[in-house]
Amino acid sequence: MASLFDTSELRSFRAEVRAFIHEHLPAEFAAKTRAGLHLHRDVVGRWQGILNRRGWGAPHWPLSAGGTGWDTYRRYIFEEECALADAPPGDVLGLFLAGPMLIAAGSEAQRTRYLPGILAGCEFWCQGFSEPNAGSDLASLKTTARRDGDHWVINGQKTWLTEGHQADLMFCLARTDDSVKPQAGLSQFIVDMKAPGISLQPILTMDEGHSVNAVFLDNVRVPGENLIGEPNRGWTYAKELLTRERTNNAQAPRTKRDIIALQRLAEAHPGPDGRPLMDDPIVRDRLAGLTADFVALESAVLSVLADEMAGREPGPEASILKIRGSELQQRVTETAMELLGEAGVVLEPGYGGGPRDPVARGWVERHLFRRVVTIYAGSNEIQRTIIARTILGM
Amino acid sequence: MASLFDTSELRSFRAEVRAFIHEHLPAEFAAKTRAGLHLHRDVVGRWQGILNRRGWGAPHWPLSAGGTGWDTYRRYIFEEECALADAPPGDVLGLFLAGPMLIAAGSEAQRTRYLPGILAGCEFWCQGFSEPNAGSDLASLKTTARRDGDHWVINGQKTWLTEGHQADLMFCLARTDDSVKPQAGLSQFIVDMKAPGISLQPILTMDEGHSVNAVFLDNVRVPGENLIGEPNRGWTYAKELLTRERTNNAQAPRTKRDIIALQRLAEAHPGPDGRPLMDDPIVRDRLAGLTADFVALESAVLSVLADEMAGREPGPEASILKIRGSELQQRVTETAMELLGEAGVVLEPGYGGGPRDPVARGWVERHLFRRVVTIYAGSNEIQRTIIARTILGM
Amino acid sequence: MLLDSVRRYFRENRPPDTRWARFGEGQRQPPDAWREMAELGWLALAVPERLGGLEADWDTRLAVLREAGADGRPEPLDVHLMLSDLLLRCLPQGQEEATAAAIMAGDMRVGVVELRPRAGPTGGNALGGESGPVYGAGASHLLVLVHAPGRGCRLAWTAVEGPGLSLQQGRFLDGRGCLTVRFNHCEPRWLDASGHHVRDLMAAGLVADCTGALDGAFRQTLDYLKQRRQFGRPLSDFQVVQHGMAEVFCDLQQAVALTRRLAREMNAAQGSACDSLPAAKAFLSRRLLRGLGRLIQLSGGIGMTEEYPLAHYYKRAQTGAALFGDRGEQLGRISPVATLLGSSGCG
Amino acid sequence: MLLDSVRRYFRENRPPDTRWARFGEGQRQPPDAWREMAELGWLALAVPERLGGLEADWDTRLAVLREAGADGRPEPLDVHLMLSDLLLRCLPQGQEEATAAAIMAGDMRVGVVELRPRAGPTGGNALGGESGPVYGAGASHLLVLVHAPGRGCRLAWTAVEGPGLSLQQGRFLDGRGCLTVRFNHCEPRWLDASGHHVRDLMAAGLVADCTGALDGAFRQTLDYLKQRRQFGRPLSDFQVVQHGMAEVFCDLQQAVALTRRLAREMNAAQGSACDSLPAAKAFLSRRLLRGLGRLIQLSGGIGMTEEYPLAHYYKRAQTGAALFGDRGEQLGRISPVATLLGSSGCG
Predict the structure, then answer these.
(1) Is residue C344 part of a domain?
(2) Total domain count for chain B?
(3) What number is the average pLDDT over the span B60-79?
(4) Which of D333, D326, D284 is nearest to B341 (CA)?
(5) Most exposed residue of A289, B136, B332, C217, measured as fewest CB within 10 angstroms of its CB?
(6) Whole domain around residue A150: which residue ranges?
(7) DSSP secondary-structure letter at D199?
(8) How close A297 gets to chain D, by Cα (Å)?
């Protein structure tokens, strides 16, 4: 039981969080979180509302903006308890990306208008960064915003908009100045997804799910006050935002929950000889190996937390969390597929029907969709380059 | 038993080879091959002499130069039987590098003078290619050879001379023309290792063995007839030679023998619970995984052999054999170290004394020295670049 | 020659990009494809000459299956190319000719399914209980591999539309059709051959099929990387991209070589199970699948989408890895010394 | 402060390059080093204040051991920094003070050795049979971990120069000295503590030591890659070299974090075994070792030589991986649910 969190204050904090979740998390939300990948905004939003009414809507935001005032350890314990209880994950786009960017760079008016919707779980965001010819290489993006009186007029095409079809608002990176070097001429805007000139196109992914989208912006008019921060500083805001996302992307609490679920699967699912897989020493060795690597990842996360407790900002070290965290997420579901065997490759008829065997539900979709975790939010190749250049000075 | 080699002709050929080895291989040679890495030239040379007297001194050389006239399948069977019997490996430097280069590019006089010594196992060679500032990047080497009457005078420094201290002769790459682009101005020479101006310096490697050396050439005079082929074509000869070496570097027959030895080790060596390691399902799974990967490697080797049988030269495809073959060699001894546990880390007193437990002898030295197999003969990184550029057109 | 015509047919008849771009509608078999394949003679490849077939060797059969994998074809060519001759050998003499003719005409479609009675052998000779998935979309007849604890794996043969069977529609992970069968006192014909042998033949077919999938995915990716520009130059210019592709190429070459080796060994053993099969299937289930994952990684987000082929190849290989003996099971069959000394005749 | 002085001492007293360049002569301990370490107060770090020691916390102790690993020191600091207080707790009250003084003065040197009687427990309380290697070069006294089948692991304490012991000189793979002991009716003092606990403490020390080794090797390699030129530019300019180093950096950071975590957990548990130890030791035995192998690969041939430090770090980590519970044994102790819920107090 020896641990960073093993103080009486933190133990009682954990107990308080656990009791609240136990009392307020609807069983159907937990079931949906276990079974599915792409939760409907109703589920995410309603849980967000429940947390927000308790004052826990955005633990990592400053107290003044609606945060909880918890230290980083408490925030981590909160995340962990939510994960272990299969509570719906908080909406990354609003809580981790749009919100913090508005808090850091937005105007007072923007914060007043937009933060409450995120906290209450009633307004959803999407991110308009990538373009068909600008994936990892954002500096080459082509979408333009030109001034027209009180408004900006945006034209272009964005892609990989996670949950764009469920979003009310988009933060969007567009070129406002052609005359400077590529990174310097970009600005960020808040775009209403119902504005005329916006058309969405779903992108189906290999998990047979619809969570990402392409969007076309055809003379979309955006009020001047929707510029975030200063013009031509959009690149800086984007970089800060991606760094924040990388820390979150270690996804340690959810992976902890997944490895526990893997053991439950191995205890319940029979191998070819009819005995539970967990009776097989090779399976046990495999799960123990995953656990060891998880403990290594979690230790690195805890080190970053301890640094944050000591007042240091997460720097490029967070890249190692993204790399190892995403790799481990993939290995967990790869292991699940190996354990499931045939049960992992037989689906219900009808596109998107999911696996037939209840034991496989959730695992197969996660396995397929998680090919993305080493690609998105700055691919692991980009992260390695960041480490080599920024930290190692190569 | 279904196999490429499962014809009555090849079966009786294999039986003939096996019987000969059984009858003529001294038991002490087999013991030395199992236990050690860097065999003394006496052992290698005497076994070479035995084979040569049978007419099997250089199966891969043309019949006219002293070869056997065997097809590639027979050559492979021969290699395999030698490996399975723990016969001392043939001297790579003479049989696979110097000999074939002289056959391809040397003069009639050179062939007459040097090939018999290689075949008989009484003259040994070393390779003077790498320099302290030219490892993988041979084009930047600095050793010079300048004409002085009937002689060439060589000055410079060479490194990584495998078995240089046991060698009679060196083939040496030196710059003969400064005025052209770096690769174009190199020539190859035959250098007598006893010539005045040559001084050797041993390089100790991590296996506590002495097999490589540095050599300094201080106004070493080389007769004009010791130029190999044409002047300024040394780079071409070197490239051809390295391609030949890559095929050999898959080392499939020796790795097959090693995996078999690994199973014997696991059957004989007890785990912490006192029972043979082979009783542990995790160990069995591990060895089976190595075996599966070996079968994949061997299949690729056999494909190249089948191509050669059909008259096609080994091309850059051989790079995949070098990469996967060398990786597998390392994995085999890594596995041995994990099986050996404590027995793998306790050595006799005195530098070079080797492991104390007889069961570990040979394994530990091979494990350490084999860090080199992914580095030498064109590192695996170089091989990947060759594949990408030459085969994949990237 | 045959392979050329196979490639041409695949290219001209619903090539993968047209199917995959509309995957949301389901991975259906083109209705006429099977009959066309029969007309092209492909279904005669595994039928003995004395019954009017082409009696192709295993090199040819596995090469065709590689093409089918590379093209992501939904039709279960592998079942017919791997098993037709074995099935015909097992039938009573009177039925051989009619069955051969029906197979070659495309009228009889064979599926393979495994039945693992959890609670000991079923009573008498009737089949009961729920089976695993039927491999072989659109099957009219089934080869049932009945695993009886302690009694090995027996082989049974039954029509799909007979009494004692109920069927449920399903799909494999890669969208190919599959059925689940419930047997209820189904009385099949018991055949005199080993079910293990059928499993191994199917597994060998999957090795060829998935090697084709990796091959198709590799070529697609290589083209893409040469065209796609990031940071001002083609992705194929980046050293890590080059080395990543070189790594996958190593595995692809090994998979191709393994497939060739299986064919050679099966030719030599006249179609009986071959020594290298467990190793080859284990290789498919780990390295080949990882190679496909790596190609998706190198391609970036587009590799994840349904309209692009990579994900489909990946799911096909994932399906192949799970069926007819997964990695764990195949590794469990390998005894290093026996495999290494046996497989090259040096034991 | 302490760590600064540790680093300074190591830098100024036979730094690794001077030792390694002459490795052929043997990896001897500098004769005066142990006494100097005693004078610097390091041997008092693990002695309780009431006995005149410094009673340092585990962060400090493991940090010192990391430095020792990064410097490839031959002295067995880890035995003393991990075990002194435990040993003193186990001794009868009358002996505590004299023993503490002897330890702090550098006069008493402790080694650890495991004894696994193959044929059941030895008769009575005497020790017999051949032991594994003694860890702790130059030991004058031994802690013997006696594995008795079915009775766990008991702890015994004996002087090296007593009756009933014969010693044989040897070396560990990385050149540090070791002894092999033959017990012949040796009558040790039996201590009232768990031998398993001592093993875990030693394993935790090895995690710190080997993390230091990876750290030292990493810094060395990074410098080298920035200086060494190939194909007209520094090796550190090549993308695959950059990514290779980034990969090792990920493992190094995780190893450092694991070491910190062990220290925290041991502080909280007042020096008792900690939940994360099996995972940390298993991590060391695979990934940390692979990281070192990769650094050799990135450095090329020079990484293989005795005169260059990398090979020594590699062999040190290989030694650490094998001792006090190898990967297989540590993984066997991990039950995922218990470890995951226990280690962060969320069980």
Answers:
(1) no
(2) 3
(3) 93
(4) D326
(5) B136
(6) 125-233
(7) H
(8) 6
Question: What values do phi and psi take at A71, rounded to 5?
Answer: -75, 175
| Closest Cα in chain A, distance from residue B281 (Å) | 7
Residues in C closer than 8 angstroms to A131, CB to CB, are none
C255: nearest Cα among C123, C104, C70: C70
Residues of chain A with pLDDT under 70: 1-3, 244-247, 249, 314-316
Helix H or strand E encompassing B42: helix B41-53
The answer to whether A124 touches A114, Cβ cutoff 8 Å, is no
What is the Cα–Cα distance from D262 to D58, expressed in whole angstroms?
8
A28 touches chain C (CB under 8 A): no
Instruction: Name the band, by pLDDT with cuts 50, 70 and 90, for residue C225.
Output: very high
Q: Which of D23, D312, D328 lies at the smallest CB-CB distance from B282?
A: D328
The identity of residue A191, as a single letter, is V
Structural domain including C175 reads 110-193
**CATH assignment at residue C22:** 1.10.540.10
Catalytic residue list contains A163: no
Residue C90 is assigned to a structural domain of this protein:
yes
What is the per-residue pLDDT for B1? 34
pTM: 0.95
Residue D278 lies in a domain: yes
- Say if residues C61 and C45 touch (Cβ distance below 8 Å): yes
Residues of A in contact with D253 (CB under 8 A): 300, 303, 317, 320
pLDDT at A2: 41
Once rounded to an integer, what is the mean pLDDT over residues C14-40?
Answer: 80
Q: Look at A288 and D331 and tell me if their CB atoms are within 8 Å.
A: yes
Out of A84, A292, A297, name the one closest to residue D346 (CB).
Answer: A84
Q: What is the CA angle B132-B134-B138, rounded to 5?
A: 150
User: Which of A248, A165, A238, A162 minimizes the C-alpha distance to A200?
Assistant: A165
Q: At A134, list the tokens.
A: 């600008």
What's the DSSP call for residue D188? Answer: P
Q: Is the pLDDT of residue D347 over 50?
A: no
Touching subunits of A (3+ CB pairs, under 8 Å) are B, C, D
Question: What distance in Å separates the CA atoms of residue B5 and residue A378, rounded to the nearest whole number?
Answer: 51
Q: Do D170 and B203 touch (CB under 8 A)?
A: no
Residues with Cβ < 8 Å from A260, sequence gap 6 or more? A84, D336, D337, D340, D341
Judge if A175 and A259 occupy the same domain: no
Return the residue of D nearest to B270 by Cα: D118
Q: Are residues B152 and B59 in the same domain?
A: no
Give the pLDDT confidence score for residue A245 in this predicted structure: 66
Q: Burial, D7: exposed, middle or buried (Cβ in 10 Å; 0-12, 13-18, 19+)?
A: middle
In a domain, B40, yes or no: yes
The pLDDT value recorded for residue D24 is 67
Instruction: Tell whether D340 is within 8 A of chain A (Cβ).
Output: yes
In this structure, the answer to whether residues D87 and D133 fall within a common structural domain is: no
Binary contact (C238, D238; C-beta < 8 A):
no
Counting Cα atoms < 13 Å in the Cβ hemisphere of A226 gives 22
Catalytic residue among A80, A123, A163, A245: A245
- D42, D54 Cβ separation under 8 angstroms: no
Q: Which helix (H) or strand (E) holds A144?
A: strand A144-148
Residue B326 to residue B252: CA distance in whole angstroms = 9
Task: Out of C236, C282, C346, name the one closest to residue B394 (CB).
Answer: C236
What pLDDT score does B394 carry? 96
Catalytic residues of B: 245
Interface of chain D against chain C, CB under 8 Å? 238-240, 243
How far apart, in whole angstroms, are the C-alpha atoms of residue D85 and residue C88? 79
Q: Is residue D16 part of a domain?
A: yes
Neighbour tally for B393: CB within 10 Å: 9
Which of B318, B163, B331, B298 lies closest to B248, judged by CA?
Answer: B318
Would the CB atoms of B135 and D25 count as touching at under 8 Å?
no
- Tally of helices (H runs) and strands (E runs) in chain B: 12, 9
Give me the interface pTM, i.e. the ipTM.
Answer: 0.95
